[in-house]
Specification:
Elements (H helix, E strand, L loop, with lengths): L1 E6 L2 E4 L4 E9 L6 E7 L6 E7 L5 E3 L7 E6 L4 E6 L8 E8 L9 E4 L3 E6 L1
Parallel strand pairs: 2-11
Antiparallel strand pairs: 1-3, 3-8, 4-5, 4-9, 5-6, 7-8, 9-10, 9-11
Length: 122
C-alpha cells in the first residue's frame, strides 16, 4: 500500500496561483503513475492531470491544460500540481492518487490522499 499526504491548499484570489504537494511513502516501487483529481460539492470526482512516475510523461484534462502543471521529484517521492490563473470554478477538494498503470480513470487508482481544500475567491 502507498500512503499519500497532500498539502498546499488554501485560499487564493481569481487569477492567482497555488502549488499543491503530494508526498508518497510505503510501497512506492509499485507506482507507475500519479494523478491529481478534484471534487466540488455535488459533483463527481474530476481528473486533472497525471504523470508517469519514472519517465515524467504527462497528460492533462482540457479544463486545466495550459494553467496547471504536474511535476515530480523522485528523490523526495513527491508530486506537485502548480495551479496558475485560478478561477472560482477551480474551488474544490483536491486529491492525489497513485496507480499501477498510466491512466486518467479514477478506477485505476488504488491509493488516495486525504484531500486538500482549494478555495478561489472572485
Amino acid at each position: 500500500q502507498v500512503q499519500l499526504v497532500e498539502s498546499g491548499g488554501g485560499l487564493a484570489q481569481a487569477g492567482g496561483s497555488l502549488r499543491l504537494s503530494c508526498a508518497a511513502s510505503g510501497r512506492t516501487f509499485s507506482v507507475s503513475a500519479m494523478g491529481w483529481f478534484r471534487q466540488a460539492p455535488g459533483k463527481e470526482r474530476e481528473f486533472l492531470a497525471l504523470i508517469n512516475w519514472s519517465g515524467g510523461r504527462t497528460f492533462y484534462a482540457a479544463t486545466v491544460k495550459g494553467r496547471f502543471t504536474i511535476s515530480r521529484d523522485n528523490a523526495k517521492n513527491t508530486v506537485y500540481l502548480q495551479m496558475n490563473s485560478l478561477k472560482s470554478e477551480d474551488t474544490a477538494v483536491y486529491y492525489c492518487a497513485a496507480a499501477q498503470m498510466y491512466s486518467s480513470s479514477p478506477v485505476e487508482y488504488d491509493s488516495w490522499g486525504q484531500g486538500t481544500q482549494v478555495t478561489v475567491s472572485s
